[in-house]
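User: quick one, sequence for these tokens?
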């Protein structure tokens, strides 16, 4: 996306200062505590990392896209400076991840992009000013969510979101009405100026879904993460609270027959940032807290090399 700040810049000229001060929520969709999952100390997942899990995981590249590098990587970081990184366009992808649990069914993490994004962009839930501010016309759609879902033998039982930024719910309109959607706490209430143009789009994407179910984390002050939820009660899939990018930013740890996989979401959008220990750039809601979460997740991954890491927007 051409960044939240550039969306804000182009709109600041049009909209009044008072509105800019208050902003609005990313969606007006209703919110409820999740009935699925229970808080569990994050340390309890450690002994499970070496045991094969039951969940088959498939990561699908829904589209190729490109985004300004300054949002994705902190270009002021000394390592980024000495590498000579500039604010050019960084090639990225939008994914969704399919989780097949033998008893609980098919779930996805994040949503890829909607079929209409390829076939009729003017009719997509994300359209108009937000679509042009995010350069959505640059998206090269490979596997729209709706088309993919139509080929699956089983129905979709739920959507787990890493966070509620527009590029993570670009496929939400293809999620069948009535499908439960889960997210971290505080995502839908977070107010920002940019949401004045985002909210209508998010509301369209979420139309027909039940109230957003928020993971009920028990805050851990000295834990591996700020909190953890054992989603199915069998230790197979964990929601890990890593706030900062947004208040409820959540990574997912999935235990597959071939070992554990960490779906990191936008804790790190890029491969370069993750490998060089450089946190994301301007896209964060709370940059300091996002950096703390980035360091926590990297420390976890380094201590447990058996965990395969899949980043927010690059393989
Ligand atoms: Zn994001």
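Assistant:
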């Amino acid at each position: 996306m051409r960044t939240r700040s550039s969306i804000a810049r182009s709109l600041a000229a049009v909209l009044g200062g008072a509105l800019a001060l208050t902003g609005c929520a990313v969606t007006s969709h209703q919110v409820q505590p999740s009935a699925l999952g229970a808080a569990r100390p994050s340390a309890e997942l450690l002994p499970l990392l070496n045991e094969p899990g039951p969940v088959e995981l498939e990561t699908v590249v829904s589209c190729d896209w490109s985004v300004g590098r300054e949002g994705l990587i902190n270009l002021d970081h000394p390592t980024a400076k000495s590498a000579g990184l500039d604010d050019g366009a960084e090639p990225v992808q939008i994914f969704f991840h399919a989780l097949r649990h033998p008893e609980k069914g098919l779930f996805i993490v994040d949503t890829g992009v909607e079929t209409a994004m390829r076939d009729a962009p003017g009719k997509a839930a994300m359209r108009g000013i937000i679509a042009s501010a995010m350069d959505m016309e640059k998206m090269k759609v490979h596997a729209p969510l709706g088309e993919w879902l139509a080929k699956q033998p089983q129905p979709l039982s739920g959507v787990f979101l890493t966070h509620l930024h527009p590029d993570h719910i670009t496929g939400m309109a293809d999620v069948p009405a009535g499908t439960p959607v889960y997210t971290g706490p505080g995502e839908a209430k977070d107010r920002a100026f940019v949401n004045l143009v985002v909210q209508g789009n998010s509301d369209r994407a979420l139309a027909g879904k039940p109230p957003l179910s928020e993971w009920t984390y028990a805050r851990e002050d000295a834990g591996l993460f700020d909190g953890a939820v054992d989603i199915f009660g069998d230790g197979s899939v964990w929601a890990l609270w890593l706030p900062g990018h947004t208040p409820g930013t959540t990574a997912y740890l999935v235990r597959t027959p071939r070992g554990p996989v960490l779906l990191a979401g936008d804790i790190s959008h890029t491969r370069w940032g993750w490998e060089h220990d450089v946190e994301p750039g301007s896209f964060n809601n709370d940059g300091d807290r996002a950096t703390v979460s980035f360091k926590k997740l990297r420390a976890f991954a380094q201590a447990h090399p058996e965990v395969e890491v899949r980043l927010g927007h690059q393989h």
